Amino acid sequence: MTLRPARLLLLVLATACTDGTDADPADTDATDSDTLVDPLAFAVDAPGPYQVGYRSLELTYDPPADTASRTVGMYVWYPTLDTEGEVGRYGVYAEATGTLLDATPAPDDALTEAHGGRPLLVHSHGDQAFGGDNAPLFGHLAQHGWVIVSVDHVDNLLFANVQPTPPLHWVHRPSDLAYAVDQLEALPSDDPLSGLVRTDRYLVSGHSRGATTVWSILGAQFAAGNESDWCPGCTSDQASEVATT
User: Considering the entire predicted model, what is its pTM?
Assistant: First the structure.
Protein backbone atom coordinates (compact mmCIF):
# COMPACT_ATOMS: atom_id res chain seq x y z
CA MET A 1 0.00 0.00 0.00
CA THR A 2 1.40 3.38 -1.01
CA LEU A 3 0.85 6.28 1.37
CA ARG A 4 0.27 9.60 -0.34
CA PRO A 5 -0.67 13.07 0.83
CA ALA A 6 -4.45 13.39 0.96
CA ARG A 7 -6.57 16.47 1.46
CA LEU A 8 -9.84 16.50 3.39
CA LEU A 9 -12.76 17.65 1.27
CA LEU A 10 -14.41 20.31 3.42
CA LEU A 11 -16.71 21.78 0.81
CA VAL A 12 -18.30 19.37 -1.63
CA LEU A 13 -19.97 21.83 -3.95
CA ALA A 14 -19.62 25.61 -4.16
CA THR A 15 -21.44 28.22 -6.17
CA ALA A 16 -19.16 30.16 -8.47
CA CYS A 17 -19.31 33.90 -8.81
CA THR A 18 -19.84 34.75 -12.44
CA ASP A 19 -20.11 37.83 -14.58
CA GLY A 20 -22.67 36.24 -16.86
CA THR A 21 -20.10 35.25 -19.44
CA ASP A 22 -19.61 31.63 -18.35
CA ALA A 23 -19.81 29.13 -21.16
CA ASP A 24 -23.11 27.41 -21.77
CA PRO A 25 -22.90 23.57 -21.88
CA ALA A 26 -25.34 23.65 -24.78
CA ASP A 27 -22.78 25.59 -26.81
CA THR A 28 -20.10 22.91 -26.38
CA ASP A 29 -19.56 20.59 -29.31
CA ALA A 30 -19.09 17.40 -27.30
CA THR A 31 -19.59 15.20 -30.34
CA ASP A 32 -16.20 16.01 -31.85
CA SER A 33 -13.52 13.88 -30.17
CA ASP A 34 -10.87 16.37 -31.32
CA THR A 35 -12.53 19.24 -29.47
CA LEU A 36 -10.78 20.33 -26.28
CA VAL A 37 -13.27 21.83 -23.86
CA ASP A 38 -12.36 24.01 -20.89
CA PRO A 39 -14.11 22.83 -17.71
CA LEU A 40 -12.65 25.82 -15.86
CA ALA A 41 -14.90 28.08 -17.91
CA PHE A 42 -18.09 26.55 -16.50
CA ALA A 43 -19.78 27.61 -13.26
CA VAL A 44 -19.53 24.77 -10.75
CA ASP A 45 -23.27 24.95 -9.99
CA ALA A 46 -24.09 24.29 -13.66
CA PRO A 47 -23.61 21.09 -15.66
CA GLY A 48 -20.08 20.74 -16.98
CA PRO A 49 -19.02 20.33 -20.61
CA TYR A 50 -18.48 16.55 -20.45
CA GLN A 51 -20.54 13.41 -20.42
CA VAL A 52 -19.91 10.89 -17.64
CA GLY A 53 -17.84 7.80 -18.37
CA TYR A 54 -18.06 4.90 -15.95
CA ARG A 55 -16.10 1.74 -15.14
CA SER A 56 -16.54 -0.92 -12.49
CA LEU A 57 -13.49 -2.94 -11.42
CA GLU A 58 -12.71 -5.64 -8.90
CA LEU A 59 -9.99 -5.02 -6.35
CA THR A 60 -8.33 -7.91 -4.49
CA TYR A 61 -5.57 -7.17 -2.02
CA ASP A 62 -4.03 -8.25 1.29
CA PRO A 63 -5.04 -5.72 3.95
CA PRO A 64 -2.74 -4.94 6.89
CA ALA A 65 -3.28 -6.74 10.23
CA ASP A 66 -5.23 -9.53 8.51
CA THR A 67 -4.35 -12.97 7.16
CA ALA A 68 -7.11 -13.12 4.54
CA SER A 69 -7.28 -11.42 1.15
CA ARG A 70 -10.07 -8.95 0.57
CA THR A 71 -12.08 -8.38 -2.62
CA VAL A 72 -14.15 -5.22 -3.06
CA GLY A 73 -16.04 -3.61 -5.91
CA MET A 74 -14.45 -0.43 -7.22
CA TYR A 75 -16.29 2.25 -9.21
CA VAL A 76 -14.75 4.97 -11.38
CA TRP A 77 -16.47 8.02 -12.88
CA TYR A 78 -14.57 10.17 -15.40
CA PRO A 79 -15.15 12.76 -18.14
CA THR A 80 -15.81 11.67 -21.71
CA LEU A 81 -16.77 13.26 -25.02
CA ASP A 82 -18.83 10.19 -25.99
CA THR A 83 -22.54 10.91 -26.26
CA GLU A 84 -24.04 7.43 -26.47
CA GLY A 85 -23.35 3.95 -25.21
CA GLU A 86 -24.40 1.33 -22.70
CA VAL A 87 -25.41 2.34 -19.18
CA GLY A 88 -23.49 0.60 -16.38
CA ARG A 89 -24.61 -0.72 -13.00
CA TYR A 90 -23.49 -0.27 -9.40
CA GLY A 91 -23.02 -3.96 -8.65
CA VAL A 92 -26.33 -5.54 -7.62
CA TYR A 93 -27.67 -2.26 -6.28
CA ALA A 94 -28.79 0.01 -9.10
CA GLU A 95 -28.37 1.09 -12.70
CA ALA A 96 -25.65 3.70 -13.10
CA THR A 97 -28.07 6.24 -14.55
CA GLY A 98 -26.54 9.04 -16.59
CA THR A 99 -23.28 7.22 -17.27
CA LEU A 100 -21.72 5.65 -20.35
CA LEU A 101 -20.11 2.29 -19.61
CA ASP A 102 -16.44 1.98 -20.68
CA ALA A 103 -16.62 5.30 -22.51
CA THR A 104 -13.49 6.82 -24.04
CA PRO A 105 -11.80 9.18 -21.53
CA ALA A 106 -11.77 12.80 -22.59
CA PRO A 107 -8.43 14.16 -23.85
CA ASP A 108 -6.33 16.56 -21.81
CA ASP A 109 -7.72 20.04 -21.33
CA ALA A 110 -7.02 23.23 -19.38
CA LEU A 111 -7.82 21.48 -16.09
CA THR A 112 -5.37 18.61 -16.62
CA GLU A 113 -2.71 21.02 -17.81
CA ALA A 114 -3.16 23.21 -14.72
CA HIS A 115 -3.28 20.26 -12.31
CA GLY A 116 -0.70 17.96 -13.88
CA GLY A 117 -3.33 15.29 -14.59
CA ARG A 118 -7.01 14.91 -13.85
CA PRO A 119 -7.85 15.74 -10.22
CA LEU A 120 -9.03 12.76 -8.19
CA LEU A 121 -11.70 12.44 -5.51
CA VAL A 122 -11.76 9.23 -3.43
CA HIS A 123 -14.99 8.59 -1.53
CA SER A 124 -16.03 6.36 1.38
CA HIS A 125 -19.71 5.46 1.72
CA GLY A 126 -21.66 5.38 4.98
CA ASP A 127 -22.70 2.49 7.21
CA GLN A 128 -24.74 -0.14 5.31
CA ALA A 129 -24.59 1.77 2.02
CA PHE A 130 -22.61 1.06 -1.18
CA GLY A 131 -20.02 2.69 -3.38
CA GLY A 132 -22.46 4.29 -5.83
CA ASP A 133 -24.81 5.89 -3.32
CA ASN A 134 -23.54 9.43 -3.99
CA ALA A 135 -23.51 8.97 -7.76
CA PRO A 136 -25.28 12.27 -8.63
CA LEU A 137 -22.45 14.22 -7.03
CA PHE A 138 -19.80 12.04 -8.67
CA GLY A 139 -21.40 12.48 -12.07
CA HIS A 140 -21.52 16.25 -11.63
CA LEU A 141 -17.83 16.37 -10.77
CA ALA A 142 -16.97 14.11 -13.72
CA GLN A 143 -18.85 16.53 -15.99
CA HIS A 144 -16.38 19.18 -14.81
CA GLY A 145 -13.30 17.09 -15.61
CA TRP A 146 -12.73 15.20 -12.36
CA VAL A 147 -12.15 11.47 -11.81
CA ILE A 148 -13.95 9.92 -8.85
CA VAL A 149 -13.26 6.56 -7.21
CA SER A 150 -15.48 4.83 -4.68
CA VAL A 151 -15.57 1.26 -3.36
CA ASP A 152 -17.99 -1.18 -1.76
CA HIS A 153 -16.74 -1.63 1.81
CA VAL A 154 -17.32 -5.37 2.06
CA ASP A 155 -19.11 -6.55 5.25
CA ASN A 156 -20.64 -3.08 5.71
CA LEU A 157 -22.99 -2.94 2.73
CA LEU A 158 -26.69 -2.41 2.14
CA PHE A 159 -27.38 -6.12 1.54
CA ALA A 160 -24.35 -7.59 3.31
CA ASN A 161 -23.63 -6.13 6.73
CA VAL A 162 -21.80 -8.07 9.46
CA GLN A 163 -22.94 -7.57 13.04
CA PRO A 164 -21.41 -7.06 15.51
CA THR A 165 -18.88 -4.95 13.65
CA PRO A 166 -15.53 -6.80 13.50
CA PRO A 167 -12.63 -4.79 14.97
CA LEU A 168 -10.66 -5.04 11.71
CA HIS A 169 -13.53 -3.27 9.96
CA TRP A 170 -11.90 0.01 11.03
CA VAL A 171 -8.68 -0.99 9.27
CA HIS A 172 -10.35 -2.46 6.18
CA ARG A 173 -12.26 0.71 5.27
CA PRO A 174 -9.27 3.06 4.83
CA SER A 175 -7.25 0.22 3.34
CA ASP A 176 -9.93 -0.23 0.66
CA LEU A 177 -9.47 3.38 -0.41
CA ALA A 178 -5.67 3.34 -0.37
CA TYR A 179 -5.49 0.17 -2.43
CA ALA A 180 -8.10 1.50 -4.87
CA VAL A 181 -5.79 4.42 -5.63
CA ASP A 182 -2.92 1.95 -5.98
CA GLN A 183 -4.92 -0.07 -8.50
CA LEU A 184 -5.81 3.03 -10.48
CA GLU A 185 -2.14 3.96 -10.60
CA ALA A 186 -1.01 0.44 -11.57
CA LEU A 187 -3.35 -0.08 -14.54
CA PRO A 188 -1.50 -1.46 -17.56
CA SER A 189 -0.41 1.08 -20.16
CA ASP A 190 -2.95 -0.18 -22.69
CA ASP A 191 -5.87 0.46 -20.31
CA PRO A 192 -7.81 3.61 -21.34
CA LEU A 193 -7.72 4.88 -17.75
CA SER A 194 -3.98 4.37 -17.35
CA GLY A 195 -2.18 7.59 -16.48
CA LEU A 196 -5.45 9.51 -16.49
CA VAL A 197 -5.25 11.01 -13.00
CA ARG A 198 -2.73 12.54 -10.67
CA THR A 199 -2.52 10.07 -7.79
CA ASP A 200 0.19 11.60 -5.61
CA ARG A 201 -2.30 14.19 -4.33
CA TYR A 202 -6.04 13.67 -4.10
CA LEU A 203 -9.12 14.65 -2.14
CA VAL A 204 -10.99 12.26 0.14
CA SER A 205 -14.60 12.56 1.23
CA GLY A 206 -16.91 10.40 3.30
CA HIS A 207 -20.54 10.16 4.30
CA SER A 208 -21.44 9.32 7.92
CA ARG A 209 -19.22 6.38 8.91
CA GLY A 210 -17.18 7.23 5.85
CA ALA A 211 -16.05 10.37 7.70
CA THR A 212 -14.25 8.09 10.18
CA THR A 213 -12.61 6.43 7.21
CA VAL A 214 -11.50 9.83 5.94
CA TRP A 215 -9.78 10.65 9.23
CA SER A 216 -8.09 7.26 9.14
CA ILE A 217 -6.68 7.70 5.66
CA LEU A 218 -5.49 11.16 6.66
CA GLY A 219 -3.36 9.59 9.37
CA ALA A 220 -5.47 8.88 12.47
CA GLN A 221 -4.00 5.92 14.39
CA PHE A 222 -5.82 2.74 15.35
CA ALA A 223 -4.36 -0.17 17.34
CA ALA A 224 -5.86 -2.90 15.18
CA GLY A 225 -3.62 -5.69 16.40
CA ASN A 226 -4.31 -5.37 20.11
CA GLU A 227 -7.86 -4.90 21.35
CA SER A 228 -6.64 -4.47 24.93
CA ASP A 229 -5.10 -1.13 23.92
CA TRP A 230 -8.49 0.42 23.26
CA CYS A 231 -10.92 -1.84 25.13
CA PRO A 232 -9.17 -3.37 28.19
CA GLY A 233 -10.67 -6.69 29.26
CA CYS A 234 -13.18 -6.80 26.40
CA THR A 235 -14.10 -9.76 24.28
CA SER A 236 -14.08 -9.25 20.50
CA ASP A 237 -17.86 -8.69 20.49
CA GLN A 238 -17.63 -6.16 23.32
CA ALA A 239 -14.75 -4.37 21.64
CA SER A 240 -16.79 -4.14 18.43
CA GLU A 241 -19.68 -2.60 20.35
CA VAL A 242 -17.37 -0.03 21.94
CA ALA A 243 -15.86 0.82 18.55
CA THR A 244 -19.26 1.63 17.05
CA THR A 245 -20.35 3.99 19.85
Answer: 0.77
